Amino acid sequence: MPIWLTREDVQAVLNMPDAINAVAEAFRLLSLGQVELPLRTNMPVTPHQGSLLTMPAYVGGDVDGLGVKLITLYAENPQRHNLPAIQGSFALFDPRTGALEAVMEAGYMTAVRTGAAGGVAVRHLARPDVETLLLFGAGAQAPYQLEAVLCERPGIRQVWVVSRTRAHAEAFARAMQERFGVAATVPAIVEEAVRAADIIVTATSAHEPLFDGRWLQPGVHITGVGSHLPHAREVDSVTVQRAKVVADQTQACLAEAGDLVVPLAAGEIEQEHIYGELGEIVAGRKPGRVDPAEITFFKSVGLAVQDVAVARLIVDRARDAGVGQTLTI
C-alpha cells in the first residue's frame, strides 16, 4: 500500500550527508545515460508572482526510482503570507509496475537536495584547504547550502552573510552560528568579503549580478543555485569568463540559467566554455579541480533525478522505521 509522508516524517528520516551521497549517485547515473529526464515545465503564475513546476524522472542503477514532483515557487511568501517560498508534493512509483509507492511533502526534500547538489560540487571543485565562505542570501535555501558546504569542508572557520537587508542578514548569521558552531557575520564591505572568500554561494532571487567578477581571488569556488530563469542571473559575465564552468545538466542550464544564457547571447562566451556536467566529474569521466588557482563555477537549476534519488532514500528509510501513514486509494 502507498504511504503519505508529512514534512515532519521526511525530516525524521533524511539527513544532509546521505542526501549528498544520493544526489552524487543521481548525477553519476545521469552522466552514464541511465536516467530518463525530460526538461521540466515551468508555468508562470504572473498575477501572484509565482510559478508551478512539474519535474518527472526515472533513475536507473541501484536507485531504480520513478517519480514526479509538483512544486510551487513564490519568493515573496515568507514576507507576505508567512508561508514557505517553496512548496510541493512528490509522488514515487514502483518502476516495475507503475504502482504508486508514496506521496510526500516536497518542500523540505527540495531544500535538502538543492543543498546537497552544492555539497557534491564542493566535494569535487572546491580546494581542500578552504576556510572562508561567503553566502549571498538568507532565505529558505541558505541554511541547506551552508550545511552542505560544512559537511564537505568542515575546516570552514568564517562565514559571511549578505542579504537584501542588513538586519535580516544579521539575524540569519546569529542563527547559523548557534546552529552550526561556526563564526558567522555580516561583512561591512561586500567587495572585501568577495576578495577574501574561498567559497561563494549565491542562493537568492536576484535578477542582476550580485558582485563584480573582477573581485574574485584565484582558487575560489562559486556555486549558483538561485536563478532559474533565462533572463535572471546572480553572477556576471566576467565571473563566467574567468571560471571553469560546470553545469548540473548542460541542456537544462542552456534553457533556464541566465548566468550562462545572457553571456552566450551577448557573444561573451561560447557554448564550449562550459567545461562539462557535474555527473561527468563524479563518474570520473572528467577531472574536477586540477589547479589550486583555478576559479570554478557550478551552476545548478535543479534536476528531477535529484528528487527521485532522494525520494527513494526517504521512502526506503520510512518503511524501515515505520514512519508515515498508509493511504487507501
Describe the fold and architecture.
- This protein is an alpha/beta fold and about 325 residues long.
- The protein has two domains: about 130 residues, ornithine cyclodeaminase, domain 1; about 180 residues, NAD(P)-binding Rossmann-like Domain (Rossmann fold), CATH 3.40.50.720.
- Helices cover about 35% and strands about 25% of the residues.
- It is built from twelve helices and 16 strands.
- Strands 1, 2, 3, 4, 5, 6, 7 and 16 form an eight-stranded mixed beta sheet that branches. Strands 10-9-8-11-12-15-13-14 form an eight-stranded parallel beta sheet, sandwiched between helices.
- β6 and β7 form a beta hairpin.
- α2 crosses α12 and α4 crosses α12.
- The longest helix has 19 residues.
- The radius of gyration is 19 Å and the shape is globular.
- It starts with a strand and ends with a strand.
- The mean pLDDT is about 95.
Question: Keywords for this structure?
Answer:
alpha/beta, ornithine cyclodeaminase, domain 1, eight-stranded parallel sheet, globular, Rossmann fold, 329 residues, eight-stranded mixed sheet, 12 helices, 2 domains
